[in-house]
Amino acid sequence: MHETMLYVSKIRNGTVIDHITGGHALDVIKILGITGRENRIITIAMNVPSKRYGVKDIVKIEGRELNPQEVHKIALLAPHATINIIRDYNVVEKIRVKLPSVIENIIKCANPTCISNSKEPVKAKFYVKSEDPLLLKCHYCGQIMEKLDILKQF
Ligand code: CTP
Ligand code: ZN
Questions:
Q1: How many domains does the chain have?
Q2: Residues 89 and 114 in one domain
Q3: How far is the C-alpha of 21 from the C-alpha of 146, rounded, in Å?
Q4: 1 domain residue, yes or no
Q5: pTM of the prediction?
Q6: CA distance linking residue 33 with residue 80, whole number of Å
Q7: Is the CB of 57 under 6 A from ligand 1?
Q8: What would the pLDDT profile of 110-154 be if each residue is shown by its tens digit?
Q9: How far is it, in rounded angstroms, from Cα 85 to Cα 15?
């Protein structure tokens, strides 16, 4: 198919999450809590050609914008994603997701005996050791977490 061809139609109002790492569209859907029974138009394209990264996934959601927590979660799985806010068919805002070097509160440590999983008032905290492939290191116990460990939590 030609690069300039549209795989899915444009939306009027809502959010387009573009340049999602190929194969992760359904994880993004899960992060957003979309069940498909919300009475909104959702379009998903998977493994379409991308100039920049070979293949990509796209998720379009009519009539809904994302909160910062959702944007951070998407960044963990799709570090090259762009979030486009659409109003009246125009892209009014384009957010390039970015992983911060320190991640707090978004995910839990996979080590059950980590102090961040105890009753202590300690919030989970990770250092991003590598973005792609994703590698996080727990500030408290040193546990290394990868994409699969994180996917299990969403
Ligand atoms: N889009 C859409 N509905 C609209 C406007 C845009 O579904 N009414 C989609 C486009 O198809 C594209 C994404 O939103 O997937 C971003 O649109 P745009 O910024 O116009 O495209 P590009 O310039 O190709 O974006 P980028 O540089 O981020 O690749
Ligand atoms: Zn830990």
A1: 2
A2: no
A3: 15
A4: no
A5: 0.90
A6: 21
A7: no
A8: 999 999 999 999 999 999 999 989 999 999 999 999 999 999 998
A9: 5
